[in-house]
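Fold it.
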Amino acid sequence: MQASSMEQARAEGNAIIDSHREALEKLFQDHKTEAEHQAETRVKAETTNAKLRYNQALARSQLEIKRRQGKVQQELKDKIFDETRSLLDDYMKTEAYRSFLMKCILQACDFAGSDPVTIYISPSDKEKLADLENATGAKLTVSAEDFIGGMRAVIRERNVLIDNSFKTQLRNEYDKFIFLGGDGIA
């Protein structure tokens, strides 16, 4: 009987140990699963954070490149228009420029018809005043404002300004001018 009690006690002890072992193994597996899940979550969070930092750095770099590109383009644009102004100065010394002025003056007179018209030339062209008046038969006025070259005409009765001044044309072209990329896109 004592042997059977010992066996029964041993069996109960083994059952308790097995039950405890199973509980510990289940606890270990649960802990292991949770730790793996947390590690995966941490890796995903770090990956997302790294992508975010990368995208922010990329955006900053792209902005810096665009800023530099814009600065270089502005410098080139200014240089182009400085050269254009120099070419205009040379053009204004030619017979072709005199012909251009005469054509503009005659067109303004034709457009005005019988309405009075005030035709202005730039102060830089004042030495051409008498010659242009003789050639066109129009009364010309030297403008108080230097508009580089060309002419302006005002028909007050119709509230019309004819602006063939180089200053306005240069400003309009300057404002419209953009550099196109290699693919034709600004």
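The longest strand covers residues 150-155.
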